[in-house]
Amino acid sequence: MPEGDTIHRAARRLQALVGQRLSVDAPHPRARAERIAERIDGRVLESVEALGKNLLFRFEGGIVLRSHLRLSGRWTVTPLGGPRAGTPWLVLRGERAEGVLWNGPVLELHTRSIARLGPDILERPPRFDTMLERMRRADETRWFGETLLDQSVVAGIGNMWLAEALWGVQLSPWRRLRDVSDGDRRRALESAAELMRASVDDARRVGHRVYRRAGRPCPRCGARIRSWGQGDDNRMTYWCPGCQAGDDPPRV
Predict the structure, then answer these.
(1) pLDDT in the model for residue 89
(2) 234 three-state secondary structure
(3) Has domain 4-115 been given CATH number 3.40.109.10?
């Protein structure tokens, strides 16, 4: 699933359409069924904002379009009228460029689901104190890694940056939240924010230290990196048992 840094980069590219009156159509049958294009066609796009893993398009007249990419969606920005292969979900045509949504399963003309989100890890500056307060109200029996993936606690972190951030500060995703101090919680959040901001500001691909490297030696201590599903969604977690001490994951 695209994580917060990917969404912020998409929002940055889509700024090319802000301030313009857009021509909009929905080539994909499922997108047409929602009749979204008809509501925003011919309106001025006032802003594009990334919030966690969501993109918010604000149009004149108070209309807000929410896009969530789930596992396979992506937004591209290309010159107006350029060649295209396939059937996109939505096309936003401006004066010189067009924003194209591919495989975008979540398109809504409301923001009800946004209200439950925690602070965006990529805000400038991040609201770490608010994130920590939300952690204090969270279920303390949950794993720390699972808590960091909870978008109602902090928005934008996904599996990849969870793994890399916790490795960076030598904290295990397999510690109960109650066993992680406020100081360690903050260090984990600061690590995620630093890595993800670097990804947004410098789009060069960064090598992974633990993510998708199960069975390989840890670049810090040499122990074998492990992976295991975590949380109700069984999302794969990667960590080094040598330098990220914690409980063993449940084997049930």
Answers:
(1) 92
(2) coil
(3) no
